[in-house]
Amino acid sequence: MEQGNDTQLSEFFLLGFSENQPQIQPLIFGLFLSMYLVTVFGNLLIIMAIAVDSHLHTPMYIFLSNLSFVDICFTSTTVPKMLVNIQTQSKVITYAGCITQMYFLLLFSGLDIFLLTVMAYDRYVAICHPLHYMIIMNTRRCGLLILACWIIGILNSLLHSFLVLRLSFCTNLEIPHFFCELNQVVHHACSDTSLNDMVIYITAMLLAVGPLSGILYSYSKIVSSIRAISSAQGKYKAFSTCASHLSVVSLFYCTLLGVYLSSAVTQNPHATATASLMYTVVTPMLNPFIYSLRNKDIKKALKILLGSVTRRGPIDSPS
Fold first, then answer.
1. HEC secondary structure over 237-287
2. At what angle do helices 232-265 and 95-128 cross, to 10 degrees?
3. pLDDT by residue (tens digit) across 23-61?
4. What is the CA radius of gyration of the chain?
5. In the structure, how many helices (H) and strands (E) does the chain have?
6. What is this structure's pTM?
7. pLDDT, tens only, 71-80
8. Contact 104, 77 (CB under 8 A)
9. What whole-number distance in Å separates Cα of residue 212 and Cα of residue 214?
10. Are the CB atoms for 36 and 50 separated by under 8 Å?
11. Cβ-Cβ contacts under 8 Å for 273 (sequence gap 6 or more)
C-alpha cells in the first residue's frame, strides 16, 4: 500500500493476552471486571474517608486523595475498553481512540510518578523539619505542588501526542497489547520515528529518573533523621508515618522496572503485556489496601464513614 497521511482511516487491533485462546476470554473478562471494580471502589473509599474526616485535611492526605483519584482515572483509561472488546469479541480501536487513550495513559502515569515524588517530599519535611512542617507545607504550597504535577503531566502528554500525530500509518496495525502503548504505536509507523524515539528517551530520563532521584534523596534524609532519634518508640512512630508511601513507591517502581526489563530480555510481546498489567491495573488496585491496612488514621476514618452509612441505612429505607 502506498504510504500516505490518511491517518484518520487507520485502525489498530489490540491483541491483548489470549489471541489464540478464545475459550479463556470469559475468565479474563471476569477477572479484569473484578479488579476494576475493586480499584474504583477502594480508591473512592479512600477519597470519601479523607473528605468526611476533618482530621485528615492535612497535606499528606490531600496528596493521597489526589493519588487515589489519579489511580481511578489511570485504570479507567484502559480496562473498560478492554472489557468492551472482550464482550463484543472485537479487538479494534480507532486511530482517534488510540491517540486519546495514549494521551490519558501518559498523563495519569506521569501524575502517579509526580504525586509519589511530592508525597516523599512531604514525608521528608514532616520527619526532618517537624517544627516548620505546617509553615513549609501550607495550603498554598500544597496547591501549587499539585498544580505543577498536572501542568507537567499535561505538557508531557501533549508533546508525545502531537509527535505521534505527525506520523503516517499505512495500514491497519496489530498491537500485541491490551492498550495503545506509546512505543508500540510509534514503532508501527511507516514514516521516520527518530524524533519520537529521541523525545521518548529524553523525557523518560527527565520524568522517571528525576523524580526517582528526588524520592531516594528524601528517604536518605529520612533514614538519617530516624537513626538520630534515641528512643525505639520514637523511631517506630517516625517510620510508620512513611511506611505506606514507601510500600506504594516500591511496588510502583519495581513493577515498572520489571516491565522494561522483561521487554529488553525477552522478544515475546505478550510477556511484556502481562508484565505491564502489574503497574497499570494491579498497583492501583493494591494502593487502597496498603494505605488502609498500614495507616491507623485511614482505618479510623473508614470506620467512621462506613458507620455513618450503616446508621443512615434504616432511616432511608421505607417503613
1. HHHHHHHHHHHHHHHHHHHHHHHHHHHHHCCCHHHHHHHHHHHHHHHHHHH
2. 150
3. 777 888 898 899 999 999 999 999 988 888 888 888 988
4. 22
5. 12, 3
6. 0.86
7. 999 999 999 9
8. yes
9. 5
10. no
11. 16, 17, 176, 177, 178
